[in-house]
Design a protein that fits this description.
Number of helices: 7
Oligomer: single chain
Strand order of the largest sheet: 4-3-5-7-6
Strand content: 15-25%
Helix content: 25-40%
Order of helices and strands: EEHHEHEHHEEEEHH
Number of strands: 8
Distance between the termini: 28 Å
């Protein structure tokens, strides 16, 4: 999985800090970890090879199935799900700021599954849950909405994992992170925007810290460490041109500070879609 967000709870309110903890969780289960330097280099070579005979898509309409998990009392409403899809379309369309990525999401349906164990621990039941509920091929986004265990907000799979493990493809987010949800500072639906960015192949903006190749996108300035909260400015790599991309969806800022993808990220997502998520014709 591309990313897990750690969530802390205090009496009377739900708050969260974004923190990626995927390595230990997935390695303990014998599953794919976040890409290391060697895997990233391999993917770059494979991406160039796959794109050599394909035309990169300029516009992408992504069919999306949303699978709502519930324990019988708690879970996302249909209106909250539709609000999340609307937020995705606004964010990826540049409506909050930044570039229009050319990516749009078309809601194909909402399923509702009453299963207390899956609702409370989607990660621990990932394989049976996705095996039963997932629909479509690599071009179909399956978004699973439950209440994540181990205090996390969301996780996603990368496109270059799809050929080997198609049954596990998809994105899982906490239902309280949907627009209007109960998670203070993470209640505008941008957890979904962030995780789906991983599903399209984007890395965190702070990937590799101040060292090359960073996140493999040229127009996101180097970032030494994740953004915490909503600072007015931040420059964690002072020896490198550009201040930290604190408003980028692929950082860890509070939702109210997130507003943009860059043109380079847009191109990267469309390249990965073309290379891994649509059949070669």
């Amino acid at each position: 999985m591309a990313c897990l967000f750690t969530l802390g709870l205090v009496p009377g309110s739900a708050v969260a800090d974004r923190e990626c903890a995927v390595r230990a969780a997935r390695m303990a289960r014998g599953e794919p970890r976040e890409p290391d330097a060697a895997e990233l280099a391999r993917v770059e070579g494979e991406l160039r090879e796959r794109l050599s005979s394909r035309v990169v898509a300029a516009q992408i309409d992504v069919p999306i199935w949303v699978h709502v998990l519930t324990d019988g009392q708690r879970g996302a409403s249909d209106s909250a799900v539709k609000g999340q899809v609307a937020t995705l379309n606004t964010a990826y369309g540049g409506g909050f700021g930044g570039t229009d990525t050319g990516i749009r999401f078309v809601l194909k349906g909402i399923t509702r599954t009453r299963n207390q164990a899956w609702f409370r621990d989607p990660l621990g039941h990932e394989e049976p849950m996705k095996t039963l509920l997932r629909r479509g091929g690599g071009e179909t986004l399956n978004l699973f909405v439950g209440q994540l265990s181990e205090l996390v907000l969301g996780y996603a799979t990368y496109p270059h994992w799809f050929p080997d493990t198609p049954r596990l493809d998809g994105v899982v987010i906490d239902w309280r992170s949907l627009p209007g949800g109960a998670l203070r500072n993470f209640d505008r639906g941008f957890t979904g925007v962030h995780e789906i960015g991983h599903w399209f192949g984007l890395l965190h903006t702070f990937e590799n810290g101040c060292e090359a190749p960073g996140d493999s996108v040229d127009d996101t300035p180097a970032e030494g460490h994740p953004t915490d909260g909503c600072p007015s400015a931040k420059d964690s790599c002072p020896g490198i041109p550009g201040t930290d991309p604190i408003h980028n969806y692929m950082d860890y800022s509070f939702d109210r500070c997130m507003s943009e993808f860059t043109p380079g990220q847009s191109e990267r997502m469309r390249q990965m879609w073309t290379a891994y998520r649509i059949p070669k014709v």
